[in-house]
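Before the break, one more example. Copy the sequence into your notebook; we will annotate it together after we see the structure.
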Amino acid sequence: MFKKLVAGAALTIAASTLVTALPAASVDAASKKVSLKELNVQFVPSSQADTIQAKAKPLEKLLKKQLGIPVHVTISTDYNTVVEAMGSKKVDMGFLPPDPYVHAHEQYGAKVILQSERYGINDKKGDGSNTDKLVDYYRAIVLVKKDSKIKSVKDLKGKKIAVQDTTSDAGYMFPVVDLKKKGMNVVKDSDLVTVKGHDQGVLSVLNGDTDAAFIFDDARNVVKKDNPDIFKQTRALMYTSKIPNDTIALRKGISAKDSKAIQNAMIKVSKTAEGKKVLNDVYSWAGVAKSKDSNFDIVRDYQKQIEDIK
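Here is what the structure looks like once it is written out:
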C-alpha cells in the first residue's frame, strides 16, 4: 500500500510539474524575435588579446534579452578564422574590419548590417584626445620613437617595422599602399615583423624591438595607462588615407527578417550603459550605425593595389 501511495504521489507531482512547465515553454517561444535557434558571435582581438574574452562576454546576456535566443560569444585568433567560420556557418555574426569583411562578402556572401562609430582623434594636438564628433572612419599611423633618426618615409628603408596580419587595414594594407604612393616599398625594402595586436606594435617601438609600427589612430591610448609618457616618447611619421570603420556582418543564409531583428537588437544594445561599455572596452567604439556594402569600395580598390606591391 505504501509503495502504491508513493508511486501515485510521484505521478501526481510529475503531472503537476509538467503542467506548470508548459506555460514557461510557451513564454520562451513567444519571446523569440528570430527563427534562429541560437546566435554564434565571434570577435577578433585588435589589442590586449588576453583580456578581450572577459570584456566581450556580457554581450551574450544583452543580445539574448533582445532576441530571446541563446547567444554565444567567442574570440578568434585572426580575421581569416572568422571569415572561414562564417563561410561554414559555424559563426553567424562576425565583428570584422573592412578588408576581412570584403573577403567574407565576396567568398561567402556575408552581409554588413552595421558599421562602428567612434569619436574622431584630435591629431593636431598629438595627445590621443578625442574630438566631439562621431565619425565612420579612422586612419592608420606609421609610428616611430620621438628621437628616431627616421624623419621621412624613405628613411624606413632597411628598417624593422611591426605590422599586423596582411588582412589588417590599419596594421598592414593602408600603410603599405600609401607608403608605396610616396615612393617607399616596405614589402621589398624593409623588414616587416608580424605582432599580435596594435598595442604590441606600440610597445615594440617603445622598447626598441622595432624601428616603426603600423597602428590604428590612436592605439597609443591602449597602453597609456601603463606608459603615461607614451605620447611624449613617440611620434606619428605619417597618417594614411581614411579607412571605413569596422563592421558587424552576418553570414549568408540568415533571412532578411532575422537580419533586421539582429540589426535592431544591436542598435538597442549599443544605446544601453552595459552595451556601450562592451563596445568601448573591446574596440573603443562609441556606437553603431546602419551600413551598406558600397561603403567598402575603397577597400576593394586598396586590395587591388596591394596585389601589385611585391
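The chain has two domains: 37-116+244-306, 136-242. Confidence is low (pLDDT under 50) at residues 1-27. Try to locate both features in your own notes.
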